[in-house]
Fold:
Amino acid sequence: MAERPYTVLSCGMSIDGYLGGASDERLILSNEADFDRVDAVRADSDAILVGAATVRNDNPRLLVRSAERRSARVARGLSPSPAKVTVTCRGQLDPQSRFFATGDAEKLVYCSSASESDARSLLGRVASVVGGGPRVSMRWLSEDLHDRGVRRLMVEGGGTIHTQFLTDGLADELHLVVAPFFVGDSRARRFVDDGRFPWHPDRPARLADVQRIGEVVLLRYALSPRCSEVP
Structure:
């Protein structure tokens, strides 16, 4: 069997399971202390993956914020921040977005074969475009990343990407931060879509740790035998 990176899914959600509100305005689901924790997880990763919708809607930098952590990575012979990875069906991403315009690490865009030509024309100067067949499989993508030297992958969403990694059994850990409020609007995006998940009432996920960080709570789930923090 082909190898894949050790994969950590990272997500913040409301008490009722939403990733944000129903409007285009970004909803803050965490606090500075937790942002620093996420920064440490990023610094320990070889690559960070987000979906194309996250690139378009949130315009993330996906950089290590701490100067000390950046310096430590450089001292190990790494780039200051991990490589950035996204997946797109249509290839319609802004090459001037912060995902592409910030950071010196490699940027990878996985796309379907139908959109590969357009993606190369639009993004070929700012990223490596990788064709993934009629529909990009997260398992194939993970194996391809491993072949490229990625040993630890951090997945930061959004909901479609989380759903695909979880239903395919590709996650080793889930870091789930719960904010102390409700969204209460079904037009908003939930943490995951419908699907057949490996964890269910007869096979529950194992809770590795619970941590209070100010007014948010971090739940860390061990989702594979590769997770060393299983109690």
Q: What stands out?
A: DSSP finds seven helices and nine strands in the chain. The helical segments are 32-43, 52-58, 67-75, 98-101, 116-123, 138-147, 159-167. The longest strand covers residues 6-13.
